[in-house]
Amino acid sequence: METKNTISKEVKVQxxxxxxxxxxxxQASDIISALINQKINYHKIEGLQLWERDHNNDxxxxxxxxxxxxxxxxxxxxxxxxxxxxxxxxxxxxxxxxSIAD
Length: 102
Known about the structure:
This protein is α+β, with helices and mostly antiparallel strands. It contains three helices and two strands; from the N terminus they run αβααβ. The protein has a two-stranded antiparallel sheet with strand order 1-2.
């Protein structure tokens, strides 16, 4: 009971401003690529760990997520390339929103 009261009094949402600003296309490409690559690597490592524990584990959900991230990365690269060709900078506003899972 006491733990529930403590949790209900705590902040239930936490926002982390990860990226905020104006960037050249080169800088934006580096930032976006680094973030997406890190997430892809996380899923690859997670997949290996799951496979080590259970060789019958279905790798499809993680493979699908990796493919989605790679597609998003390509789309971002295309978008950034178009802006670079026009001599435009980019604004990036990246917020992580943390909340309690029910």
